[in-house]
Amino acid sequence: MKLIKLLLLSVAIGIGAPAMAQWQWIDKDGRKVFSDRPPGLEVPEKNIVKRPKGYGALKGVQSSGTGPALRDASPAPQEGEASDAAAAPAPAAAAPAAKAAAGKDKELEAKKAADAKAKADAEAAEKAKQAAARADNCKRAQQAKAMYDTGKAVRAPNEKGEMVFQNAEQRASEIKRTDEAIFNNC
């Protein structure tokens, strides 16, 4: 019976092992991040502290999953081993990679420009909306001021919701409030 429990525990641990966080890097704010997915392309290579076995330095090869693009699928050199790629760089392979990087940079720049334009358009729309609201507030305050300037008695709801005529003090406070609204919105 103990052997079966031990065997089941071993299987459960073995199944859960791949789900453990395997990537470790330092983000732009200097905090350590642990994840089961590789970091995004905005994380520099020097900030990647730990990666799972079988993943080398990330270089820009698109993965087939939903996570960020993998930069390279070659295994990383172990400590003490010399990297063949570092010892003898391949200029023929570097040229297509540079063209691909330039294409990605253009796409990235185009996306950034589109995002900036969308943000500017949203800000302009918000400013236009605020300007329209201010113009409406100005118009209403001027109408209220014109009503109080006629000198006629004005009715307003009291705290019970009943329509009553304003006394001189209430009228003076409403005139002051409309003057402030005109000053702020016109």
Fold topology:
Layout: H1 2-16, E1 23-26, E2 32-35, E3 48-50, H2 84-87, H3 91-149, E4 155-157, E5 163-165, H4 168-185
Antiparallel strand pairs: 1-2, 1-3, 4-5
Helix pairs in contact: 3-4
- Assign a percent range to the helix content: 40-55%
Main sheet summary: 3 strands, antiparallel
Structural class by secondary-structure content: mainly alpha
Question: What does the overall shape look like?
Answer: elongated
Widest sheet, order of strands: 2-1-3
Overall mean pLDDT:
76
Work out the helix count: 4
Let me know the number of strands: 5
Distance between the termini: 86 Å
Give the helices and strands as they follow along the chain: HEEEHHEEH
Description:
The chain is mainly α and 186 residues long. 52% of the residues lie in helices and 9% in strands. The chain has 4 helices and 5 strands. A hairpin with a 5-residue loop joins β1 (23-26) and β2. The protein is elongated and about 95 Å long.
The gist of it:
By secondary structure, this protein is mainly alpha-helical.
Which short descriptors sum up this protein?
single chain, 186 residues, mainly alpha, 3-stranded antiparallel sheet, two-stranded antiparallel sheet, 52% helix, elongated
